[in-house]
Amino acid sequence: MAATSPPGTGLLKGLGVTIKHLFQRPATLMYPYERNELAPRTRGVIALMDENCTVCMLCSRECPDWCIYIESHKETVPPAKEGGRARTRNVLDRFAIDFSLCMYCGICVEVCPFDALWWSPEFEYSEYSIDSLLHEKEKLRAWADTVPAPPPLDDGAVLPAEVADAIEKAEKERELAEAKAAEEAQAKESGAAGGAATPAAAAKEPEVEVKAGEIDQETFDQLIAEGKSERIARSKAKAAWVKKEKARLKAEAEQGGGDAAAPAAAPKPAEVHVEAGQIDQETYDQLIAEGKTERMARAKAKAAYVKKEKARLRAEAEQAAPSGESAAPEAEAPAKKQLSEVHVEGTGEIDQEVFDQLIAEGKSERIARSKAKAAWIKKRKQEQLDQEGGA
Amino acid sequence: MSDLDTKERIQPGTAPGEDVAFEIHGDGDFPTADMSLSIGPAHPATHGVFRIVLEMDGERVREARPVIGYMHRGFEKLAEYRDYRQIKALVNRHDWLSGFSNELGVALAVEKMMEMEVPDRAQWIRMLIAEWNRILNHLMFIGSYAIELGAITPMFYAFREREDIQHLLESATGGRLHFTYNQPGGLKIDLPKGFLRESQRLSTVVRERLPDYFDLVLGNEIFQGRTKGIGPLPSDVALSIGVTGPTLQATGVAEDPRVTEPYLKYGEIDVPVPVGENGDSFDRFSCLLRRIQASLDIIDQVHDHVPPGPVNSKLPKMVKAPEGATYVRTENPLGQLGYWLESDGGRTPWRLKMRTPSFSNVQAIPYLMEGVLLPDAISILGSVFFVVGDIDR
Amino acid sequence: MTAISSGATTYIAQSVSLFDGFDGFVLPLVLKIAFVLQLFFVVPLVGGYLEHKAMGRMQHRRGPVEAGPFGVLQLVADGIKFIQKEDVIPRAADRWVFAAAPGVAMVPALLVFLVIPLGPGVFALDLELGLFYALAITSVSVLGVLMGGWASANKFSLIGGLRAGAQLIAYELPLILAAITVAVQAGTLSLVGIVEAQAGFMIPGTGINVWFVFPQIVGFGIFFISAMAELSRPPFDMPIGDSELVFGYMTEYTGIKYAMYMLTEYAGMITMSALMVVLYLGGWQLLPGVPMPGCEGAGGLFDCSPIGIALSVLVTLGKIMALVFVMVWARVAYPRLREDQLQRMSWLVLVPLSLLNLAVITVFKVVF
Description:
- In chain A, the strands form two sheets. Chain A has a three-stranded antiparallel β-sheet with strand order 2-3-5. In chain A, strands 1-4 form a two-stranded antiparallel sheet.
- By secondary structure, chain A is mainly alpha-helical.
- Among the domains of chain A are: 45-146, CATH 3.30.70.3270; 266-331, no CATH class; 346-391, no CATH class.
- Chain A has helices at residues 9-22, 58-62, 107-111, 137-143, 161-191, 197-202, 217-225, 230-258, 281-289, 294-320, 352-360, 365-390, and strands at 45-48, 68-77, 87-98, 117-120, 134-135.
- Chain B folds into two domains: 4-67, no CATH class; 118-315 and 362-392, Orthogonal Bundle (Cytochrome-c3 Hydrogenase, chain B), CATH 1.10.645.
- Chain B has helices at 75-79, 84-91, 99-114, 120-148, 153-173, 195-218, 221-227, 235-241, 246-249, 257-260, 281-303, 357-361, 365-369, 374-383, 388-392, and strands at 24-25, 32-33, 35-39, 51-57, 60-67, 182-183, 186-187, 324-332, 335-343, 351-355.
- In chain B, strand 4 and strand 5 form a beta hairpin.
- Chain B starts with 23 loop residues before the first strand and ends with a helix.
- Chain C has one domain.
- The two termini of chain C are 39 Å apart.
- Chains in contact: A-B, A-C, B-C.
- The interface between A and B is large, with 35 and 45 residues.
C-alpha cells in the first residue's frame, strides 16, 4: 500500500508474514466437531469411586476452599465370627464437590489415601445455573468411568515403590513359572507325551497386579486387638489384602489355565498395550442412538476401541505363534469369548443374593457390597456370553 | 478544554467527590485547562483492573498517578492460614501467567528452611518447566503489547504457540496455567513418557516461528515509530525504583538471579541475558522477544542434562518449616520474585511476604509518563510488563 | 432495457441510468431508491464478510463458520443481535445530538451510492459533478462522528471525535488533490465519463490502452492512504483506538446506533474502493484495452447486452473487493500510528507530493 513513502522493508515483511498464513491451514480446531486429545493427567473433573471411600475426611479438610461436602453415619456390623466383637464403621451418605468453588488444585486427589478420588480430563459440564455445579455422589461416580489410565512414566523415572515392588515380584514369579514350565516340558518330552496342555502351561503365567487400596479387615482387626496402632494395622492389613487378592487371582488364573481350554493361556489383555485415543465409531453411533449422552458414549466407545484393538493385536500375536490351538479346536472360533473379554459396565448395581449371603456370613457391608457388585458384573458377563454364544 | 461553564454538570470520567477544578495553563488567546482522564480500572489497555489517573493538557500527559488495589485478594494473609501444600495452589494465582515460577519460589524457600536435598532430576525438570513457563508468559505479553499498539495479529500467533506449549505442560502437570507441580523436596510426579522428546520438538517449532514476530512487529517501521525513544528509563532510575526483569535489562543492566545468584542448576549451564541500550519501549519489547530465544537456548541445554533418578524426596507427613526466616529470590518471567518466609515451626507460615516484580515495575510509570502524549502513555503502559494480580496480590 | 450512451463521442457529458429506461417518473424513482438501498445494505456486508474471513485466515484461524454456509450470514446475525440490544443513552449525554449522530454519519454514506457506477447504466445518477459530489458528501460523515463524540459526555469519546475531525481535515486535502489530478487527466468530473476516458487513454505515441493507475501510481497511493485515514481504518484508526480511547467516539453507543456506525464504516470502505476503481482502475473494464463481451459502445464498455451488463457489474464488484482485501491486509499487518505521526505524514509528505503530482500530470496533459 505504501506507494508514496519509501516502501520500508519492515512494512513489506509484515505483509509477507500475514499473507503467508493466509495460505496455511488454520491452527484452530472446530471445537464441538473436532476435539483436542487431552492428556490423561489433565485436571478436568474430579471423579469419585465411592466404594473406596472410608469417610476419613482428609480431602474435605485439606481442600483450600472447602468445597467438598461429606456426610456419613456409623453403622454397627455384627461380629464376623461367633463370639467376636461387633464393629462400627462409617457409611458414606453424601459426597459432593461444588465445582463452582473448586479451584482445581488437586490436593484432594493427592491426599486421598484410598484412591477414591481421581482426575478425569472431562471438562464439558458447564451449566446455566451455578448451583447445578454441585456434583453429588452419583454424578461423581459417573465421572469415574471416564478416568483414563495413568500415562507411563518417563524412562529416567524411578517407579513408585508399590509399582516397582509389584513388577519385581511379577518378574520373579514369571521366572519361576518359566523354569517350572521348562522342567515340565522336559519331563513331557522325555515322556514323549506331547500333551495338549503343555503349550498352555508353557505360556506366560498371567501377571497378577492388584491395586493396593482396600484393607484386609480380618488382619486389621487382629492387629488392632494385638494393640498395634491404627496406622500400622491399616498398612499391614492393606498388604495382607493385596497378598490375599493376588493369591486369589492367581488361583483363578491357574484354574483357567488348568482347564484344557487353551485360550486362557493366550496373553491377557493387559499385556497388549493399546494407546487409548481413538473411538470406536460403531459403538459410539449405537450408544448415541440409544440416547446416551455424548460424553458417556465417547468414553465407552473409546473403551470399545481399546478392547477391539487389543483383541486384534492378540489375534495377530496368536497367529504369529500358534500355541495350543491345534490341540483345542474349540478355541479356534473367534466368537468364543472369554469371560474377561466381555465388557460390562459396572453401574453400581449389586447382586442382591450374593450380598445377602455375605452379610449373613458376617462380612462387613463394604466388602459384601463390592463382592456383590463383582458378582453382578460376572453374572451379566456370563449372560452376555451365553447370548452371544446362542446367536 | 475551556468549558468552565459546564463545571456544575456531571464531569464524565471523574469519581464522585473527586476534585474537578480546572487549572488554567498559558495566557493570551489560548488558555488551556487540564483534564483528568481516568484510564481504568476497566480499560482495554490495563488488562485487568489497574487504574491510572492522567492529568492531561490536550493529548499531553502532565502527570500520571497509578491507582492500585482494585484486585487486592490478601494473598499474604491467606498464606498464613494455609499449609505448605495449599500455599502452592495459592501462589500460582497471584501472577497467573507465571504459575510455575511462583510455586517454585515457595518450594525453594521451604526447602531452604528445612535444609532439604532436592534430587538432581527434579531440579533439571523444574528448570525446564520454568523456562517453558517463561516463554508462555512472554508470548502473552508480545501479543498484548502489539494489541495495545493496534496490531491485532501477533496475539493470535502468540496464542497458537501458547496453546502448543500449554498442551505440553498439561501432559506433565495436568494444568494449563496453574500447574501445582512443585512440592517441597521436588516434584509431585515424574514426567510422562515422551515428554522430553515432545519438548525438544516444540522447542524447534517455536524457534522456527520466532522470526515471524521479528518481521511482523519488531521490524515494522510503524512499530518502531511508536516505540523508539518512547519512555526511556535510565538504568540508575530503574535501579533506584526497584525495577527488575526485562524492564531493567532493557536499560542495559544484565541483572538476573539466574546468573548472579544461581538457583537450581542454572549455574551449570549457559544462561544468556539479553540487554537493551536506552531502556525505551522498543528495547523493553525487544528484550522480551530475545528472552524467548534465550529461554529456548536454556531448554535445549536442559534436554541434554536431565538425569535419571527420583524426582522427590521423602516428606514427613506434615511439612513443617522449622522456626526461623529465609528470603528466596528467583527470576520470574516479569522480574525478580522474592518470598520472605518466616515460620514459627508450625504447619503454616507465620508470615509470607511477597516481593512481586509487577508491583515494583509499575512504580516506574509516573516517571515514564510525564510529558508524553496519550498514545505514548499506552505504549509505555504496555511495555512496563505487569500482571494486575501480581501488583495487588 | 436500453443502456444509452452517446456512443461515438469520446467524452459523454452525462449518460443515462438503466432505470431511466422505464416509463414514467415514479417507477424509475422507486427502482433507483431500491438500487441504492440494496447497494448500501448488501455490498458492505459482503465486504464485511470478506474482512472477517480474510482477517481470520491471515491470523491462522477460520473466521466465521457457523452462521450460514461458511459463515456468510455472520454480519446479518450480528445485525439482528444489535437490534435486540438495549439502547443506552448516558444520563449526562446530550440526548438529541447523541441520538441523531449515527444517522448523520450514516446518511451521507448512503447518499454516495447514488453516483457510484457499477457497470454500463448500472447507477442511480450520473451527475456532471459526480466526483465533486462524492468527495463532498463523504466528508459530511465526520460531522456525525464529531457529534457523537461530543454528545456522549465521555472524555474518551470527545478525544476520539476530535481526532476524527483532525484526521479528516488533514487527509481531505491530499484526497481531493489526488482526485482532481484524475479529473484533470480525464477532462471530466463525471464518474462515468472518467471510466470512459480511461478506456480511451493510450500511452502517448503508442496504441496501448492503460488505466490511470499507471501514469498516476503516486496519486493512487496517496488516494488509498488518504481514504484509509479518512475512514479511520487501521492503521489509521486513532479515533477509535481501542487500547487508548476504549472505543473512541463509539464508546457510549450500543445496539442499533452502534450498528449504524459500523455500517457506515463498512459502507465507507465500499464507496472509497468504488471511487478508486472508477478513478484509477478502469471501472468495469476487465483489462486495459479489452472490450467487455457483449458491449459495443465506446471502448467496448457501453451499449451492452444484459450479459455484458452483468459481467461489468461483477468486474466492478471484484475490483472493489480486491481493494477491500488490501485494506484488511494492512489492518492485519500493521500497528496503529500515533495521531501526530499521522498529521505529520499528511502535511509534510502527502500534501506536497499530491501537489507535485498534480503539477506533473497537468504539464503532461498540456504537452501531449
